Each structure stands twice: as C-alpha cells, then as structure tokens.
Amino acid sequence: MATPPNPARLPPNQPPATPLLDRVRVPADLKNFSAEQLKQIADELRAETIHAVSQTGGHLGASLGVVELTVAIHAVFDTPKDRLLWDVGHQAYPHKILTGRRDRIRTLRQGGGLSGFTRRSESEYDPFGAAHSSTSISAGLGMAVARDLKRLSGKNAAGYRDDRNVIAVIGDGAMSAGMAYEAMNNAGAMKSRLIVVLNDNDMSIAPPVGAMSAYLSRLISSRPFLSLREVMAKVARRFPAPLERAARRADEFARGMLTGGTLFEELGFYYVGPIDGHNMDHLLPLLRNLRDAEEGAPILLHVVTRKGKGYAPAEASADKYHAVSKFNVVTGDQAKAPPGPPTYTKVFAQSLIAEAEQDDRIVAVTAAMPSGTGLDAFGKRFPKRTFDVGIAEQHAVTFAAGMATEGMKPFVAIYSTFLQRAYDQVVHDVALQKLPVRFALDRAGLVGADGATHAGAYDIAYLGCLPDMVLMASADELELAHMVATAAAHDAGPVALRFPRGEGFGLEPVPARGTVLEIGKGRVLREGSKVAILSYGARLQECLRAAEDLAARGLPCTVADARFAKPLDTALVERLAREHEVLITIEEGSVCGFGALVMQHLAWKGAFDTGLKFRPMTLPDAFIDHDSPKAQYETAGLSARSIVATALATLGEAAGLQPARA
Ligand SMILES: Cc1ncc(C[n+]2csc(CCOP(=O)(O)OP(=O)(O)O)c2C)c(N)n1
Ligand SMILES: CC(=O)[C@@H](O)[C@H](O)COP(=O)(O)O
Ligand SMILES: [Mg+2]
C-alpha cells in the first residue's frame, strides 16, 4: 500500500498525489476496494479536500471530520439509489469529490462553480438541498415513507420494487434544533426504516450549548466506544433470524423498562453507539449490517468524530476551521483581507455594548451564531446578559418575547435568512402582542459565497406586512450605530434593523454611541429636480454615484435615504413624487418589500393618476447563485450603472443604455 499523503508536507500549490482516489469516478467504484484500500482512499480524499479548500475557502472543518464516514457510507450503500442526506450540507465536500464533482471541486463557492452545500440541481447524489440546518431527519423520513408507500403498491413509477435505504447524517449542533426533535418524535412512532447517523464532534460553529449537548457528552463518557465484537454482537442481537425476533424484542423491551435506554431509544429509535467515526474497521461492517437489516424501525447510529480531523492547524484552532478563507496548506495561515473599515457586525456589537452599559435591561440572544453576529464580544462584556440558545431560532424569538413581557429589552441578533424559520413566532408571539423585541438582522441582502440559501432577501417583505413593526435599514455603519441606539430607545413595540455582511464604507468615524433617530423620518442627501432616487439600506452610495452620472448628463437628481420602511416617511415620499418626473426606489431585498410599501402609499394618494413614473428596483424575482457580492448585485441589476440605465430608459433618453429590468 502506498504511503498516504501528509497534507502538512505538501507544497502549498501542488495538488496531492491520489493514486487510489483517481480510480474512483463514481461511488460504486469504491466497492472494488478492500478495507485497507478504503482507508488509503480516505487519506487521499482528506488531502484532496484540504488542497481544494485552500484555494477556494469554505467550510473545511466539518468536511474533514466526515471523511471516513463519507467513504464508508458510499462504499457500503448504493447511492444514488440509496438516499444520502447531509444536514446543513457544509460537510459535503468529500461527498462531492466522490460523486463525480472532483473535476469542479476547485470552483467551490465561486461564481458559476459548485455550491458550498448539497443541491438537487447539482447532482443526483444530492437527493435533498440544504444549508439551513436540522432538516435531514424530516426529509429523510419523508423519503422513507414514500418508499414504503410505493412498496405497498408493488412498483414505483419507474417500474421497479423500491427498496432503497435512506441515510440522514446530522451533527450534534444541528441536533439542538426543534425540527430535529419534531422529526424524531414522528419517526420514532412510525415503523419506517430510516438510518440517522448522529455525527457528534462536540462542536457547533462555536462550542455547542444546552442540555442536549451535555447529554451527548454524558452518553459518550458513560459508554466507551463499542469494540468491533460488541458492535457486531449488538447488531446481531437486534436483527436476528425472523423466528427469534419476537422473543428477543420482548426481552429487550423488558430490559429497557428496567434500566432505561438512551433518549433516542425512548423516542423509538434503535440506538447503536457510540462508535469511533474515524475507524473504518468499525464503520464498514456496522454499516453493512444496518444496510441488510430488514426490520422496519428507525435506527440512530451515534458516531464520534473530530471536527478538522487530520489537519493539524484545523484541529488546533478554536473553531476547528469551521469556515476559512484561502490558506497556505503548510502553515494553515489564512488569507487576511487588507485592513479596511470595520464590519457592520463589529459596529453592531460595539454599539449594543455602548447601549447596554447605560441600560441593564438590554439583553442579547443568538441562535448558535455568537461570532457571526458579534455577540461573542457582547458576551465577554456581559456574560449574564447574553444567551446562546443553540440552533433554535423559533425558541430564540419567543424566549426574547417572554423577556420583553417582563420589561427586559431583548435584542435578537440573527441573520436575516435564519429569522425566516421563526416567522410565526415573530407574528404571533411578538408582533400581535406589540412586544418590544429588537431584531438585529445581519447578512441582509446578498451574501456572496454562501449563495441563495443564505441571502437575506426576504425580511423587508415578510416583516413589512406586519402591523406596528418598525423597520430600519442602515445605509452605512454610522447609520447602524444610530439605529442600534434608536432600537434600544423604542419601547412601543417590535423593531427590526437590517445591515449587510462585511465591511462598511469608512466614510466617517463611528461614534462610541449612536444618536436616537426620529422614528419614520428619512433624510435627503442631494437635491435635484428631474429624477428622485429613494434608497433603503446600503445601496445609498450606489445611488449617489448614479446621481453624479445623471447630473453630468444634465439630469439633476435628488437622492434620499428612507431609513425607515415602516413607518414610512410619507411626507418625504409624497414630496419626491410631487416634485420629480421619475421616482426610483432601491433596496437590497426581494420584490414585495420597500418599493411595494412606497407604491402602495403613492397609489392611495393618487400619485400615479397624475403621471408619476415610478420604478421600484429590488432584487429580481429569482434566486441568485453564489458569487462575489459585487457580481451578485450586478446580476441583480442594483448597481449605479443599472440605476442610471433605469432613469434614462424611464425618461425615454436611453441613448444605448438598457433599463435594469424590462
Ligand atoms: C437554521 C440554521 N441556523 C444556523 C445555521 C448556521 N450554522 C451552520 S453550521 C452550524 C453548526 C452546525 O453544527 P453541527 O450540526 O454539529 O455540524 P458541524 O459543523 O459540527 O459538523 C450552524 C449554527 C444554519 N445553517 N441553519
Ligand atoms: C454553514 C452556515 O450556515 C454558516 O457557517 C454560514 O456559512 C456562515 O456565514 P458567514 O460567513 O456569513 O458568517
Ligand atoms: Mg458538530
């Protein structure tokens, strides 16, 4: 057997030698190799994954932790006929390499390249798209039940007997979400055969939190890894010859009643584990047995792995290289962005700390994203007033609502895309009761490499339709500081403020503490006459650039920053409509958002009856793939160039320029 490549010894830009992996074109090829060879393939796969991500950046740590599991599952099962679901999908890079996408793996997360998550349109080996966590058990159960129904009817649509396996791999972090429990509750009561692999690496993005995480740790420490003999004996006991089954089950049931099983057993799963998820000699025979078991019951296989496994810099880092930029394979040093203005996230955290210094009722809630939302900094300063509730967005919102009823001032710091999961909680628990919960919506707008699944596109639309909601969007980081102060001061009901991913503009220094803004009042930055551009959010600089361009063409342009989508600055909107021939609104959000709110108001005021030319510029009514944010906004038609083109086309002076949208 050749010596496996050691990634730390590879020259940074040279792909590793992968003689066995080169012979794997599709997962079925893995069936031609011995266990020893599969171990070598796993080593080569790990080296290939490290090298690829060193060139693209991405979610490396989770992928490194599942290399052996990926090889073993593909070697034992018959994908894509057998359905393999990766929860979140951020750990699926080795899976992509094994499933016909190796030639494109160095395009990961780049414009036009492979997605950083699983995606149905990308491969038949991705039976379910993911990126938001904790969906795999539900989707897997749905597939298993569909299989059972088709079996009952004898044949499936393609005309063959449907006996596929369904395997859902879910992490310990993802296991903290309500959806995972809802799915287990349902699965445990059904006699459908589903294999759930709990990939327990004792990490979420940050160290995991909560009672379930503590429970899993206790489970592991109270039960040493099963030896191979124990693994096989346990599985054989559970899946004996048919005649022995009834007696065995009665016996196990009695023992379970006496000793108490794991939580998973209590929920109706057959629990196997814990086993070492890097030990191929254990994984292969165990998975084969689970594959061949005929019994109709859900199985939970508990594997213990290390996030970042096999790459020293990842194993040694605090976040286990959850998400990395491009890096040097030898040293592990990640590419650093040149020093620039502070990120919005940082300004948010500093501003919130400044408010919380003055008001001890301010508390902050995150759903497993302390570093992403800046609440790690808040938590260092106010550990008792910071709550990481795990991946539990619904709970985070209602938990905050509960605190608000008692006079606290909760800030739910959450990515726009993840608040989608807690919509009913926002409507029913917060808005209906007019509770002053503050939503700090980070990653608003297009987010770049994470792509459509993570786009913060919809919050203006889904919050804008709720009565009494105050909605603000920051044009720059200074405005963000003011909006944090405004949200802290606003006790009359719920408030949401949105801001984009990444750095601000560095136009002006951000004060230690923001100034409270007048609710529902916008500001005018530039006065003109022909065209008015009303911006909501961080496209303001693009609007100002467009105005320069239009002015140079003899079209004086007014530029205003609405600041609020709700309540709308109706006086400002009406004036802009009255005094200009063309009114353009622009936002980093979907259709049915700010532009729609402005349009609705103006329609009732009769502005269109007297000939106003109104053009709402929003994200297109389409999902926008991963790319650089700049390229995404070009695609979306929300750049200065597109604003100019829209204004000219609307005025009928298009001189070769096309409107952003027909
Ligand atoms: C609904 C939702 N909330 C938050 C996230 C952000 N997120 C992505 S991965 C992750 C941690 C997942 O931990 P785990 O399932 O244990 O996987 P690991 O990275 O440890 O392999 C989080 C919080 C998400 N993708 N989806
Ligand atoms: C997989 C996942 O959901 C997160 O890791 C996400 O990719 C983080 O995005 P940011 O890099 O914007 O924090
Ligand atoms: Mg984990």
Automatic annotation (TrEMBL):
Residue ranges constituting the Transketolase-like pyrimidine-binding domain according to the UniProt record: 342-507
SUPFAM superfamilies in the record: Thiamin diphosphate-binding fold (THDP-binding), TK C-terminal domain-like
NCBIfam families: dxs, PRK05444.2-2
Protein name: 1-deoxy-D-xylulose-5-phosphate synthase
Enzyme Commission code(s) on record: 2.2.1.7
CDD domains membership: TPP_DXS (cd02007), TPP_PYR_DXS_TK_like (cd07033)
Catalyzed reaction equations: D-glyceraldehyde 3-phosphate + pyruvate + H(+) = 1-deoxy-D-xylulose 5-phosphate + CO2
BP term (GO), one: terpenoid biosynthetic process
Chain residue ranges for the region called Disordered: 1-20
Species assigned in the record: Teichococcus coralli
Annotated InterPro entries: Dxylulose-5-P_synthase (IPR005477), THDP-binding (IPR029061), Transketo_C/PFOR_II (IPR009014), Transketolase-like_Pyr-bd (IPR005475), Transketolase_BS (IPR020826), Transketolase_C (IPR033248), Transketolase_CS (IPR049557)
Cofactor(s) it depends on: Mg(2+); thiamine diphosphate
